[in-house]
Amino acid sequence: MKSTLWNDWQNTLYSVPTHKFDNGLTEYQIAGQIADLLNSYNHLKTKHTPSTILSDKVKYFIELYGQDVIGCVGLLYELALDKICHLTIKPEFRRKGFGRKLIYRAKEFSQRSAVYMSIREDNIGSLNLATSLGFRAIAYKRTNDYNLLILFMEK
Ligand SMILES: CC(C)(COP(=O)(O)OP(=O)(O)OC[C@H]1O[C@@H](n2cnc3c(N)ncnc32)[C@H](O)[C@@H]1OP(=O)(O)O)[C@@H](O)C(=O)NCCC(=O)NCCS
C-alpha cells in the first residue's frame, strides 16, 4: 500500500464528466467504478451504470488507489443550496479519513454559502461523520421506507 495516498490531495480527482484523467483510466471506466460503488454500498433506488453517472447532474469527487476508485462523493447544484450526496468508501478503506476528506473537498468546491446532506437516521457512521465536520440536523423527513435527517452546514 502506498502511504502517500492517505494524505496526498492530488489523488482526489473530480468532475468526472468534464475532466480528462492522466492515470490510464478512461472517463467511462471511472464512471463504471463509481456506479459499482453506489450499487454495492448505498441503498439507492436507482441502479447506476457508467452512462447514468456520466450524464448525471451530480458532480463526482473520487479517491483513487492506483487504478481503483476506493471512494466517491457527489455534489448536486440545487436552487438554494448544494447537496452533498452519494458518499461511499470501499469497506477495506473505511475509518482512514477518506470520507471526511471527500466531503471536505466537495464542500470547498461548492460556490454556495451553505451545503446540506440527507442521511438515513439509522446510518450512525455517516451521521457521526457529518456532525464531526460541523453539519447540524435541521429537519426530519419520513418516507415510506425509512426516515431521513437533513443536515446543514454554513461554509
Ligand atoms: C459512511 C462512510 C462513507 C464513512 O467513510 P469513512 O472513510 O470510513 O469515514 P472517515 O474515516 O472519514 O470517518 C470520519 C469519522 O466519522 C465517524 N464514523 C465513520 N464511520 C463510522 C462508523 N461506522 N461508526 C461510527 N462512527 C463512524 C467517526 O467519527 C470517524 O472518525 P474516527 O475514525 O476518528 O472515529 C462509509 O462507512 C461508507 O461508505 N458507508 C456505506 C455507504 C454510506 O452509508 N454512505 C453514506 C450515505 S449518506
The overall pLDDT, averaged over residues, is: 85
Count of runs of 4 or more consecutive helical residues: 5
- Low-confidence segments, given as residue ranges, are 1-20
Q: So what's the CATH class of the domain at 4-111?
A: Alpha Beta
Summary of the model, kept short:
This protein has 155 residues and is an alpha+beta fold. It has a domain at 4-111: Gcn5-related N-acetyltransferase (GNAT) (Aminopeptidase).
Question: If you had to describe this structure to a student in words, what would you say it looks like?
Answer:
With 155 residues, the protein is an alpha+beta fold. The chain has a domain at 4-111: Aminopeptidase (3-Layer(aba) Sandwich), CATH 3.40.630.30. It has 5 helices and 7 strands, in the order H-E-H-H-E-E-E-H-E-H-E-E. It has helices spanning 4-7, 27-41, 50-54, 98-109, 124-132; strands at residues 12-14, 59-65, 68-77, 82-89, 114-120, 136-142, 147-154. A 7-stranded mixed beta sheet has the order 1-2-3-4-5-7-6, with helices on both faces. A hairpin with a 2-residue loop joins strand 2 (59-65) and strand 3. 28% of the residues are buried. Coenzyme A is lined by residues 41-42, 87-89, 94-100, 119, 123-126, 128-129, 132.
